[in-house]
Write a structure and sequence with these properties.
Elements: H1 12-57, H2 62-72, E1 83-89, E2 92-105, E3 108-119
Length: 126
């Protein structure tokens, strides 16, 4: 077989491999930056639910939930300018937390938006 007929095919596999590895590397790096922020947000949602349930069961005022969440905020990566809004409604305590947290990628900054409301469970109502 004549190699001159296949001269244009040389390097195609190498180029495809490099492109695939570049894409996989980029996705992996983005996940490396994003996943810890999303996981901390998930854990903070769980903490919010725990505090509203505890406050409602032990007859704490809604401001107690705000204080507890503000104390725990740095541990979960919640910025100091987060808006924590507790309220008592229908014999239940609710707390809404809102903040934006920047995730810096090379050449781009993504704003991770967190807006979650936790309501105490009905069976723990006073």
């Amino acid at each position: 077989m004549d190699n001159s007929s296949r001269a244009g095919e040389r390097g195609n596999a190498r180029l495809k491999f490099i492109l695939v590895m570049l894409i996989l590397g980029t996705v992996t790096y983005a996940g490396y930056l994003y996943v810890p922020v999303a996981y901390q947000a998930y854990l903070f949602k769980d903490l919010m639910q725990s505090h509203v349930d505890r406050a409602n069961a032990l007859a704490h005022p809604p401001s107690w939930v705000q204080e507890q969440l503000a104390k725990s905020a740095p541990e979960y990566g919640v910025p100091a300018n987060a808006v924590i809004s507790p309220v008592q409604r229908d014999n239940r305590i609710e707390v809404r937390v809102q903040f934006k947290r920047p995730i810096e990628f090379p050449g781009y900054t993504y704003e991770y938006g967190f807006d979650h409301t936790a309501r105490s469970t009905q069976f723990l109502s006073r």
